[in-house]
Write a structure and sequence with these properties.
By secondary structure, the protein is an alpha/beta fold. It contains 14 helices and 18 strands. The mean pLDDT is about 95. One of its GO terms (biological process) is gamma-aminobutyric acid catabolic process. Belongs to the aldehyde dehydrogenase family.
Length: about 475
């Protein structure tokens, strides 16, 4: 961590001990630091502090809360290089990509600094002359968030910024693989003037224990989770006893569709960006590629040519496009999917080699059919299975044949087809002639077993507010 200029960003790090969590660099699996592991008693204490701080924060005006968030945004931008370096070292994504995430994550802070001033209520026409009806918006209270390792900064700010703008407090449990980014971003919030008990980072050797406390504690009124559908199901069940408000951004199995009237060059560019960003470790990255018969060979040839140019290595080195996957378990899972696909009849058109360490070679599979297991799995790695299709009906049935419904993508130059397909795809988000769709100004979220609730946009802050109806009588 010698290259980090702002040493205050790492002030939370502790010495090696039995009660510390080691953080590893996925490039070489060397330990880069330690963060404290909290006990259940520690977490209960922090929840109590969060509750007390939230009561005072709620009393601030929206403009006062906005001013703090705006300072937080400014500090994130000022420290973008340092934040990106921390992220690359602990997560593995290339430095330029990490800096892009810092900007993206800071965008949520900036956006919700403004949205917090627009949480309007309503005046309702009265049914009786002696009554007046109105609604107001109020913060839900103490909130908890569980964030993943693949976007350790953006996933934190996407949850914490609207919570804080609404007048809530926020406890954040980052992934144990990437806690440094979370602590560093929180430190900048404190430097911006946010009371420390309003944004508390919690780590523990037992992530299950933290999840159980978040789900069952009466004082926590809202839980936001980004992660696998399997874990999401378990959290939803646990929150039932306290009837807790939840939002879930779960697994994805995004189809990337190329029709025969598409701009093939543009589709290839979008496909590479969507599939190989963050080494394919994103919930919205293209997971299954469907290419219509007439342009199948042309698309595959151009796609393979583009993939073959992707540079693999340590994200701190210049020119690197694809970094490592997060750990050996992740690598093993991805390589197993590839080998199983081959056993089931797929062909490796490019890649497929086992590289040293946690690196997975960008891989293109052809001859893939809907019966293969890889079509129903979230790959979470740099592997692109390509499937032929004949017509729209055949395509829609295959694209929607999944329990997931997060993101989808398709390319066409036909305006009528554009509307037809966009409306028929059973996904919360659709990219039309575009491979990168995430932005703080648009609602992010899925349908089916990809979860519920929306993050970002005007909808994002509604997840952290209650609508209260007030009836004034005797007028």
């Amino acid at each position: 961590m010698e290259q980090v200029v702002n040493k205050s960003l790492l002030s939370f790090m502790c010495e090696e001990s039995d009660n510390a969590i080691a953080v590893y660099n996925p490039v070489n699996e060397k330990i880069i630091g330690y963060v404290p592991s909290l006990s259940s008693a520690d977490i209960y204490e922090r929840i109590a502090k969060s509750k007390a701080a939230q009561v005072l924060w709620q009393q601030k005006t929206a403009a006062e809360r906005s001013a703090v968030l705006k300072r937080w945004y400014d500090l994130m931008i000022e420290n973008a290089d340092d934040l990106a370096y921390i992220m690359t070292v602990e997560q593995g994504k290339p430095l330029a990509e990490a800096k892009g995430e810092v900007t993206y994550g800071a965008g949520f802070v900036q956006w919700f600094a403004e949205e917090g001033k627009r949480t309007y209520g309503d005046t309702i026409p009265t049914p009786a002359g002696n009554k007046r009806l109105m609604t107001i918006k109020q913060p839900v209270g103490v909130t908890a968030s569980i964030t993943p390792w693949n976007f350790p900064i953006a996933m934190l700010t996407r949850k914490a910024a609207p919570a804080l703008a609404a007048g809530c407090s926020c406890l954040v449990k980052p992934a144990n693989q990437t806690p440094l980014s979370a602590y560093a971003v929180a430190e900048l919030a404190y430097q911006a003037g946010l009371p420390e008990d309003l944004l508390i980072v919690i780590n523990s050797h037992s992530s299950v224990m933290v999840g159980e406390i978040f789900c069952n504690h009466e004082d926590i009124k809202k839980l936001s989770f980004t992660g696998s559908t399997e874990v999401g199901r378990a959290l939803i069940k646990q929150t039932a006893d306290t009837v807790k408000r939840t939002s879930m951004e779960l697994g994805g199995n995004a189809p990337f569709i190329v029709f025969d009237d598409a701009d093939v060059e543009a589709a290839v560019t979008g496909a590479v960006a969507s599939k190989f960003r963050n080494a394919g470790q994103t919930c919205v990255c293209a997971n299954r590629f469907y290419v219509q018969d007439d342009i199948y060979d042309s698309f595959v040839d151009k796609f393979v040519a583009a993939v073959s140019k992707l540079t693999i290595g340590n994200g701190l080195e210049p020119g690197i496009v694809v970094g490592p996957v997060i750990d050996q378990k992740a690598k093993g899972s991805v390589m197993k999917m590839v080998s199983t696909a081959i056993e089931q009849g797929a062909t490796i058109r490019f890649g497929g080699e086992s590289l040293p360490g946690n690196f997975v070679q960008p891989t293109v599979l052809t001859g893939v059919t809907k019966q293969m297991s890889i079509v129903q799995q979230e790959i979470f790695g740099p592997v692109a299975p390509i499937i032929r299709f004949k017509d729209e009906q055949d395509l829609i049935e295959q694209a929607n044949d999944t329990i997931y419904g997060l993101a989808s993508y398709f390319y066409t130059q036909n305006i009528n087809r554009a509307f037809r397909i966009a409306e028929q795809l059973e996904y919360g988000m659709v990219g039309l002639n575009e491979g990168i769709i995430s932005t703080e100004v648009a609602p992010f979220g899925g349908v089916k077993q990809s979860g519920f609730g929306r993050e970002g946009a005007k909808q994002g802050i509604e997840e952290y507010m209650n609508t209260k109806y007030i009836c004034l009588g005797g007028m």
